[in-house]
Amino acid sequence: MLIEALILALIISVLWGGKINRLGQLVLRESWLVPVALIIQSGLYWAAVREVGLDSSWLVQSLGTGSYFLLLFFTWRNRACPGMSWITLGILLNTIVIGVNGGVMPVDPLFLPEESRKALLEGQGTHGLMTSMTHLSFLADRFYLDILGLKKQMFSVGDILIDIGVFFLVFKTMVSQDKRPKTSVLSKKI
């Protein structure tokens, strides 16, 4: 849903009179943390799907949860940016539910296709099947969205908050007015 939120923010911002080039003026501190966290998560997913041998060990759980702490540190360093508090809260909620469920995001099986259910039962990937033993299931991927032309998606409360934050970050950056003081004719004469 993140891509859809980003596209919606761009479209609405342009319709509202925003300028896309203002996104280039957005300065994010420690931005290198985001790709590092995504590489860790992608590597863990790849290893699980390829059955490389990284079982649900403490190392896998630590790396998975740790990648979310990198994202939290990134959002904390950029807390002055518009929408970043929403993003931080969303990542925090996802981090908590993943941390208390052994390093995987629980997914409600109700809307999943059979092949996805089987894969999650076998422990493939960074997600796990929600069961009666799942902790904080209200924070898990339990919501379902199926919009024509888009891939069916499961998402969590944290994901919704992240999407809201990304929307505000893009919108407020694109429609913001130039903050530099304007020099008037009177100030030039003085």
Can you offer a commentary on this structure?
With 190 residues, the protein is mainly α. It is 53% helix and 6% strand. The chain has seven helices and four strands.
In terms of topology, how is this protein built?
Blueprint: H1 2-15, H2 33-49, H3 58-77, H4 84-100, E1 105-107, H5 114-121, E2 127-129, E3 143-145, E4 153-155, H6 157-175, H7 185-189
Parallel strand pairs: 1-2
Antiparallel strand pairs: 3-4
Helix/strand order, N-terminal first: HHHHEHEEEHH
Major sheet: size, sense and barrel closure? 2 strands, parallel
What is the alpha-carbon Rg in Å?
20 Å
As laid out across the biggest beta sheet, the strand order is 1-2
Q: What percentage of the residues does DSSP assign to strands (E)?
A: 5-15%
Model regions low in confidence, pLDDT < 50 over at least 5 residues: 180-190
Oligomer: single chain
Task: Report, as a whole number of angstroms, the end-to-end distance.
Answer: 54 Å
The beta-strand count equals 4
The helicity comes to 40-55%
Mean pLDDT: 84
